[in-house]
Each structure stands twice: as structure tokens, then as C-alpha cells.
Write a structure and sequence with these properties.
Blueprint (H helix, E strand, L loop, with lengths): L1 E5 L13 H15 L3 E5 L9 E3 L14 H13 L7 E4 L16 E5 L8 H6 L5 E4 L13 E2 L19 E4 L8 H11 L3 E4 L5 H8 L8 E5 L3 H9 L3 E4 L9 H8 L4 E4 L4 H4 L6 E4 L2 H8 L7 H11 L2 H20 L4
Parallel strand pairs: 1-2, 1-4, 2-3, 4-5, 5-6, 6-7, 8-9, 8-11, 9-10, 11-12, 12-13
């Protein structure tokens, strides 16, 4: 089985700090290689993989503002599809754009939909719904207009996350700084409870950061760490009292939530999108509807057994489980192809 994995080129695969899609693609690629599957990773030139690396864009466009992202993503995607006949299957992690090439090649195309940035991209998915395959990353993120071959939850490398039995005394917000992710709400919870809050993540919306986040950063009670690497992320999450995930949109999955629970750290999250699938309410954290409920539930975090959070992740969100689920989908698609099915 020869698989082409198409990663984004916003960041390196695997990312050095931020890059959730690239992180998932890397974990999948390395897991497939360990299963003796022939993998070619299409990513940036500085990416790292045990499989074969194919690239045309030397460095991530987020780290090189001198290049035009649209130009390089066009070159990147076409680079793969011009070599489509070399592979049994193309696994697309680059959103909707590669679908526009799918009818030009005979190689089947599977797309993992990492969420919908807006309803405006839906027509592309609808157009290619019958000749390609879609995987959703949660049941909550499925669209009724589309057909899916499977829902496959993201997996993480549990070796990157150290289980910490006893809770710390601070709160963590881990994610991009944006209204959708609820950075301001996390700050409000910390201020009401008087607990220290560490904020880690890229600033995606500068205006939002300047108006709603920066005024509260005093590097004493509210501390902004920037975007942190995996080593610092592990320490930050493992020694926390709780992760605050006060999202203002329908979360497609929530990698940071799983990463926190892998360290044993419970999560308090607004109950939107996939949160009821990712968090075991009352066991690995609490699902709430507003700031007041979040503040109230913080009192009961110490009642939770942190080992239950780790066990939950081991059972549902491991790298190996994700890889095996994708292999089953690959085999199903290739079986259909052998029968002459679309």
C-alpha cells in the first residue's frame, strides 16, 4: 500500500510549536511507517519523517512572510497530484483546495475535514462528495449535506505527555488567541477565582489581543507565554490545576483538551461542538455553559481522579488507535476501487 499524505505548509511537519493539523499528519505518517506502510509525506522541505519526504516549498509560509501563501500552496498541491499515479491513495489534510484536482486523477482521494472555516467553503465539499471520501474528526463536526466514510478522532503520542498525579495551583489556557477560542473568558474566570492563569498560543487576532487580552497581562497573575514547544507544553499542562477551554464556536475536536487530560489535568470547557465527545463529563472534567458555571465547577476539580483522565485518553485518543482506524478506511477504499466502485 503506497499512501501520499498531503500536509499543510503553514508550519513544519511536525510543528516546532504551533500547528495542530501538521501535528496530526506527522503522528499519522510515523504511525503508518511503523506498520510497514509505504508513506510519502508532502510537506515543507524542513519537515521530518521516517517515511519519504516530498517537498517544493522549503520553509513554512507562516515563518517566511516574503512568500505568497496562495502561490506556494498551489505549487505544493499540484506537486502531489502531478505524481498521483505513483500512489494507491492520496490522503488530503489540506482542506478543500486539493478536491478541485480529484477528478483529474484516477488515484482515490480521502480528505480528513479538520473543521469548516465558514459555510462558504461547503460548495466545494458538496461538488466532490460523490467521487472522493470524507472523514470527520468528530460526530459534532459532520455536515448533513455531506457523506462520510468514517469519524476518526485525533490521536496523540502518549509518550510526549507525563502523567502527574497531584494537581497544581494554576490554570492554563492553551490555544490561539482569538475570540472563537475564548481567551477573554478564561481571563475572567481566573480573575473571579483569584487563581493564576498561564496563557499559551499564537496571537491570531492582533486587535482582539490588544483590546481584550493584553490589558490584563501583568506577568504575575495573568501570564502570557507565547507559543510554546512540546517540552514546555508537557510541563505546563501536567502541573496545572485545570485547563480552561472557554470556546465561543463549535469546536471540531480540541487537541489541547486531549493533551491536558493525557497529563491527568482535568478540563473545564464550554459545551460546544465536540466537547461532549472528547470530555467525559464529571470524570475527566466538566462541561459548562457559561463563566459562572465554570467558576462553580472549579471548586470540584480536586474531587476528580486524575488517573481517570489519563486512562480515558489511552483508551480513546492514542496515536496507535488513530493509525489503525485510518488503515481500515484505506483498505475499505482500495477494496471499493478493485471492484470498480467510485
Amino acid at each position: 500500500m503506497k499512501i501520499a499524505l498531503l500536509a499543510p505548509i503553514a508550519w513544519r511537519t511536525p510543528p516546532e510549536h504551533y500547528g495542530p493539523w501538521e501535528r496530526v499528519v506527522s503522528l499519522l505518517a510515523e504511525g503508518l511507517v511503523k506498520k510497514n506502510i509505504d508513506v510519502t509525506l508532502f510537506a515543507t522541505g524542513n519537515s521530518i519523517t521516517a517515511g519519504k519526504l516530498a517537498w517544493i516549498c522549503p520553509y513554512p509560509y507562516e515563518e517566511n512572510r516574503d512568500i505568497d501563501p496562495k502561490v506556494w500552496e498551489a505549487l505544493h498541491i499540484s506537486h502531489l497530484f502531478e505524481e498521483a499515479e505513483k500512489f494507491d491513495l492520496i490522503h488530503n489534510h489540506y482542506d478543500f483546495l486539493p478536491l478541485t484536482f480529484s477528478r483529474l486523477v484516477k488515484t482515490p482521494v480521502l480528505t480528513t475535514i479538520h473543521g469548516f472555516s465558514s459555510d462558504k467553503i461547503l460548495p466545494v465539499y458538496q461538488k466532490y462528495n460523490k467521487n472522493t471520501y470524507y472523514v470527520s474528526i468528530s460526530n459534532a463536526d459532520r455536515r448533513p449535506e455531506l457523506e462520510y466514510i468514517a469519524t476518526i478522532y485525533h490521536g496523540i503520542d502518549l509518550n510526549e505527555f507525563t502523567f502527574v498525579e497531584k494537581p497544581g495551583k494554576y490554570l492554563v489556557y492553551l490555544g490561539r488567541i482569538h475570540k472563537d477560542k475564548g481567551t477573554t473568558e478564561a481571563i475572567q474566570i481566573a480573575r473571579i477565582t483569584g487563581m493564576k492563569l498561564y496563557i499559551a498560543g499564537i496571537i491570531q487576532d492582533e486587535n482582539y489581543f490588544e483590546a481584550n487580552v493584553k490589558p490584563y497581562i501583568d506577568n504575575r497573575n495573568i501570564v502570557y507565554l507565547g507559543s510554546i514547544d512540546p517540552y514546555k507544553r508537557n510541563i505546563l499542562l501536567g502541573n496545572a490545576y485545570a485547563l480552561i477551554h472557554t470556546i465561543n464556536f463549535a469546536e471540531p475536536f480540541g487537541l489541547s483538551v486531549v493533551e491536558s487530560m493525557a497529563c491527568g489535568t482535568p478540563v473545564i470547557a464550554f459545551n460546544r461542538g465536540s466537547m461532549s465527545e472528547v470530555i467525559k463529563d464529571g470524570i475527566t472534567g466538566f462541561l459548562v455553559n457559561n463563566i459562572d458555571e465554570a467558576v462553580d465547577k472549579l471548586k470540584y476539580i480536586s474531587c476528580l481522579n486524575r488517573a481517570d483522565a489519563r486512562k480515558w485518553v489511552e483508551e480513546k485518543f492514542s496515536q496507535n488507535r488513530m493509525v489503525e482506524d485510518y488503515i481500515k478506511v484505506y483498505e475499505k477504499i482500495l477494496k471499493n476501487k478493485d471492484k470498480g466502485c467510485p
